[in-house]
Amino acid sequence: DTGVSQDPRHKITKRGQNVTFRCDPISEHNRLYWYRQTLGQGPEFLTYFQNEAQLEKSRLLSDRFSAERPKGSFSTLEIQRTEQGDSAMYLCASSLQGSSPLHFGNGTRLTVT
Amino acid sequence: DQQVKQNSPSLSVQEGRISILNCDYTNSMFDYFLWYKKYPAEGPTFLISISSIKDKNEDGRFTVFLNKSAKHLSLHIVPSQPGDSAVYFCAVRGGTSYGKLTFGQGTILTVHP
Fold first, then answer.
1. Please, which residues bridge with residue A36 across strands?
2. Are B73 and B22 in contact (CB under 8 A)?
3. Average pLDDT over residues A1-15
4. If we measure between CA atoms, which residue out of B6, B67, B69 comes closest to residue B35?
5. Could you report the per-residue pLDDT of B99-113, keeping only the tens digit for each?
6. Chain A residues closer than 8 Å to B9 by CB
7. From B4, which residue of chain A is nearest by alpha-carbon distance?
8. What Å distances lie between residue B1 and A23, B26, B33, B98, CA to CA?
9. Contact A44 B100 (CB under 8 A)
10. What is the CA radius of gyration of chain B?
């Protein structure tokens, strides 16, 4: 399978705990994106990387959220001190630079209790 | 402020008929427009796209129309099939951020046999 891979698929955590998600993009893609989706809404942009450089971060993104892509391949998204409002589907996508569509993984569903 | 709006939360169509999904946007600087389809428990899947220099793009049963003066995008599916039942998102690129896609809220399409 050469698509975008996300791990874990589901995560249940207690409020105040830290969580980390991993994304492995399509191997030849140099751009990697993180989005968040809640029920009844479209995917909401969080941040994106070109190779290892983080080029843009949403203004709405709390400083409890941090993402890395240290070697320009896989990426991790960490949420510190989780809150119930962080419960959502976290989607990762990758693309080639330029006019190419984003290819999404199947997401990590986070539930904060 | 919502830059991309899908005003119909749901659409119900008979098999074999045409499905028309609509999307409005606010920023005339957007230059690339896409439609994604999403099944439950999966990530969004790219369907079709159009650049701002065109007004129509076809791919099999799917046609996207772009009306730049009205800032309006539509997706036509003909003939509709039960397997087309899914959530459809429009997405745009450009404006102040060239790298990311901004998504609408989605329209749930149900195609009845």
1. A44, A90
2. yes
3. 93
4. B6
5. 789 999 999 999 999
6. 40
7. A42
8. 29, 10, 19, 18
9. no
10. 13
